[in-house]
């Protein structure tokens, strides 16, 4: 539970004093049913949706705060988060939304409360395997669930804009990120890997060109079994050769598939 302290008007969570005017939001991407998804919380106060975010301790490193906040709000652990942008628009705060959320926690707000002043927020993003996480909502939320990026529900604050920026950052860094390794199961058909790239990039890729370039890196190992979910002739399954894959990512895969 969060408690407002006095007379300094700082916010505390347990014994941790929080930093005024700075917040943090996590954009967690997953991949399910050929859809790029994002993990969102539904607010109890007004049923709008938001990113799992929060405030930073005065003596806390940013990266540590991002991990703590994500775990506290969703139950997710062992997630590698990467900072991607700072959001500083003078008009980005929606005070009516923030007031609703904080009142759910029993926090009494006044015009002088630093919550109601201007905030900048630091964005982090991560890629996780949809099938390996079981998210849980925190005490301020009705639900914690995956939502399709291409069809987001009504969002609070400027969180739709933050998701768009995170997706843009992911596209720019795509050839340095282990997207297939992170988002797909251990064994997969090449078509699924192509679909991941197409979904993130928002465009179709030539199948033969994509397969030729990926296989030329030597980062994939062909299995002696077929994909069981195919309706026609079952394709072979592949897995990543981890050492070669991560070495290739250090220099970046080719920009164009």
From TrEMBL:
InterPro entries: NUDIX_hydrolase-like_dom_sf, NUDIX_hydrolase_dom, WH-like_DNA-bd_sf, WH_DNA-bd_sf, WHD_NrtR
CDD domains: NUDIX_NadM_like
Domain Nudix hydrolase intervals: 21-169
Domain of life, per lineage: Bacteria
Protein name from the UniProt record: NUDIX domain-containing protein
Organism: Spirosoma endbachense
């Amino acid at each position: 539970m969060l408690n407002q302290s006095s007379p300094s008007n700082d916010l505390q969570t347990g014994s941790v004093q929080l930093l005024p005017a700075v917040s943090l939001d996590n954009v967690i991407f997953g991949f399910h049913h050929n859809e790029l998804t994002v993990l969102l919380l539904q607010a109890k106060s007004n049923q709008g949706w938001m990113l799992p975010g929060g405030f930073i301790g005065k003596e806390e490193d940013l990266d540590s705060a991002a991990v703590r906040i994500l775990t506290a709000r969703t139950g997710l652990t062992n997630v590698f988060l990467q900072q991607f942008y700072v959001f500083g628009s003078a008009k980005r705060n929606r005070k009516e939304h923030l007031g609703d959320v904080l009142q759910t926690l029993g926090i009494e707000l006044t015009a002088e409360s630093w919550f109601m002043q201007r905030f900048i927020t630091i964005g982090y993003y991560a890629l996780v395997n949809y099938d390996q996480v079981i998210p849980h909502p925190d005490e301020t939320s009705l639900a914690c669930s995956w939502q399709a990026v291409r069809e987001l529900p009504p969002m609070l604050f400027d969180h739709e804009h933050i998701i768009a920026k995170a997706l843009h950052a992911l596209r720019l860094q795509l050839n340095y990120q282990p997207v297939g390794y992170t988002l797909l199961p251990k064994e997969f058909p090449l078509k699924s890997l192509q679909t991941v790239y197409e979904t993130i990039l928002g465009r179709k890729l030539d199948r033969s060109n994509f397969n030729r370039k990926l296989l030329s890196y030597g980062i994939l190992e062909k299995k002696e079994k077929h994909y069981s979910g195919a309706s026609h002739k079952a394709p072979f399954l592949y897995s990543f050769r981890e050492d070669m894959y991560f070495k290739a990512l250090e220099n970046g895969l080719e920009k164009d598939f």
